[in-house]
Amino acid sequence: MADFKIITANELPKLLSSGKVQLVDVRTDAEIARGRIGGAICLPLHLLPMRLQDLDAGKTTVFYCQMGGRSAQAAAFAAAQGLSDVYNLQGGIMAWAQAGGEIVA
């Protein structure tokens, strides 16, 4: 599989502040309904192959899920399909919340 980078919940705010990042939540609709990271694009993992072209290939892409497993699959897939600056949020939204990150409805 193609390479992607790992980013921690503590590193993510700095990357997001650049304004050149698309944050992609690959959890299910039911999981997303319990809260998400603000500004995230909601794109459940099973829809990624059909909607990958909807993402901006010119931006850094950070995928996240509940704990980091599904988003690692998404990041590997996206990188293999040609997205060049791809990250997986280590520990997912759980790590984000534990680090004090805001969760929005």
UniProtKB/TrEMBL annotation:
<dbReference type="InterPro" id="IPR036873">
    <property type="entry name" value="Rhodanese-like_dom_sf"/>
</dbReference>
<dbReference type="InterPro" id="IPR050229">
    <property type="entry name" value="GlpE_sulfurtransferase"/>
</dbReference>
<feature type="domain" description="Rhodanese">
    <location>
        <begin position="17"/>
        <end position="105"/>
    </location>
</feature>
<dbReference type="InterPro" id="IPR001763">
    <property type="entry name" value="Rhodanese-like_dom"/>
</dbReference>
<protein>
    <submittedName>
        <fullName>Sulfurtransferase</fullName>
    </submittedName>
</protein>
<dbReference type="Pfam" id="PF00581">
    <property type="entry name" value="Rhodanese"/>
</dbReference>
